[in-house]
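re the bet — no i am not wrong, look at it urself. input seq straight from the record:
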Amino acid sequence: MAIQDIYPTALRLLGRPVLVVGGGPVAARRAKGLLDAGARVTVVAPLACPALTGLADAGLLAWEPRTYRTADVDGVWFVQTATGDSAVDAEVAADAEAQRIWCVNASDHEASAAWTPAVAVVDDVKIAVNAGGDPRRAMALRDAVATALETGDLPLRRQRATSTPGTVALVGGGPGDTGLITVRGRRLLGQADVVVADRLGPRELLSELAPDVRVIEVGKTPGHHPVPQSEINRILVDEALQGHRVVRLKGGDPYVLGRGGEEAEFCRQHGVEVEVVSGVTSAISVPAAAGIPVTHRGLAKGFSVVTGHEELAEVPARADHTVILLMGVGQLRDSAASLGRAGLPAETPVGIVENGYLPNQRVTIGTLGTIADQAEAAGVANPAVIVIGDVVRVSPFAPSHFRTADYSTTTPNAPRTPRTSTTSTTKTASTTEIPKTRVLTP
């Protein structure tokens, strides 16, 4: 049988009797697939493997512990033979052919009247692959297609209207690089009918959407909220109630200073199903883009994330506790002064990472006492993440005199031999622009 002779179709076997002849692992797999399709399965075999007997003991199928008889094909809709004996399989296939019943002959795919494809299910899409009678090849292709659907590389979006209710997915898009959105987030974005988009996050992915996907822009900038949060909440619910699949594409993580909790609560209050897909929060990922860990053995064991200088009085004012400021450029001078009054030394290292992971990423490093002047002089602007604490010393972009000790990763708080530096110890600042960077390493 050539692949050109195959007419692909799908059988609806719900509630219909089918016959499986054979008791081995292949027969068990086929019986399981038929049960998943809702068929009423009868197995005929003198002996059965544990997988089959388990299904029979559970009452999911009927097992006749005997050899095959021609009358077994009477009244069934579909037959699968997999006895391992080619003569018996041929007999079953011939009896089915005589009654015009489709039969899969596992012993001889060339002579078989039907083939069983390699199958995978992604969302409500069932993938079935035939590969010229080569089951391993078919499985490899099936897995590749399923992976492409799951990752959003192939379109999974419905094209016909359905009666299913609309949904909302709050998707964290990460710090902006398209490669840092989660697989689940990418998949949901590919299924969306409507995308409610923030200013931050993986904006390039919007250009990959189908032309008829509506994008509603609700982005905010500091002090300028053209679409208030109450209106965003209303948009999500209204679009979902019209039966649309709605993705709220947010930068970072929707539950980390992203007001995702408010949006999810509003949806549930109005009877809309909502899914939250965590993202890579910029509070941790953007410092990492500049080689700055938020914790580091021997330097810092904890960190705090805040959005304004008012909260700084409540965080530990120690160089070994990392403080991360989000959306803090405008209040940087006040924030630095607040931490100084709380007892943090003026020499505490500070790093600012603008546009993390994007081609125009820029890193500015100084001290608590100098960073505000440096930021103003360099024209530092949001989006930026500010990191305060000794972990900034680890960055490969820190001035050499910042790295006065090579901190041990095996003995906490025990510096090894100090580095030799030819740089003046009065140097306090560094501003570096890193074009088209993704991951920075020393």
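see?? Residues 87 and 263 are 64 Å apart (CA to CA). told u. also The longest helix spans residues 135-150. so pay up
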